[in-house]
Design goal:
- Strand 3 and strand 4 form a beta hairpin.
- The chain has helices at about 25-35, 70-80, 100-125, and strands spanning about 5-10, 15-20, 45-55, 60-65, 90-95.
- It has a single domain, classed as Impact, N-terminal domain (Ribosomal Protein S5, domain 2), CATH 3.30.230.30.
- Strands 1-2-5-3-4 form a five-stranded antiparallel beta sheet, with helices on both faces.
- The protein is of the alpha+beta class.
- It has three helices and five strands; from the N terminus they run ββαββαβα.
- About 30% of the residues are buried.
């Protein structure tokens, strides 16, 4: 896997850890997901968005909210498509800080973490 770009966003005690990398296999996606899961010891699940073409020419598109009650994964996918990014993966994990955020704030927080990592990614690509 190539270089990993990270971004962090905090909202009412919860921390959102975003990671972006160029990938070309499910193995690399799993490596990035593990990095996101390892961001904090209490993280249980990770939002995953990716689109890539592997070495055999197979296209893979994944947008999973991983049991979060939001549609943030599809919003992030739409952003990547609008930017025409391919062979890219985004994994965002959340450490729950004890305060419920509500669907709107939760979605915004995930997206803000994504934007922080995306900015770093864009500076080098």
């Amino acid at each position: 896997m190539n270089k990993v770009f990270d971004g962090i966003y905090q909202e009412k005690g919860s921390k959102f850890f975003a990671f972006i990398a160029n990938i070309d296999s499910l193995e690399e996606l799993n490596e990035l997901k593990q990095i996101a899961l390892d961001a904090h010891k209490k993280i249980k699940h990770t939002l995953v968005v990716c689109r890539f073409t592997d070495k055999d020419g197979k296209n893979t598109i994944i947008a999973q909210n991983d049991r979060e009650p939001i549609k943030t994964a599809s919003e992030i996918m739409a952003t990547l498509e609008n930017l025409k990014y391919c062979n890219i993966a985004v994994c965002i994990s959340r450490h729950f800080g004890g305060t419920l955020l509500g669907a709107g704030n939760l979605s915004r927080a995930y997206y803000q973490a994504f934007k922080a990592a995306l900015q770093k990614y864009q500076e080098e690509n």
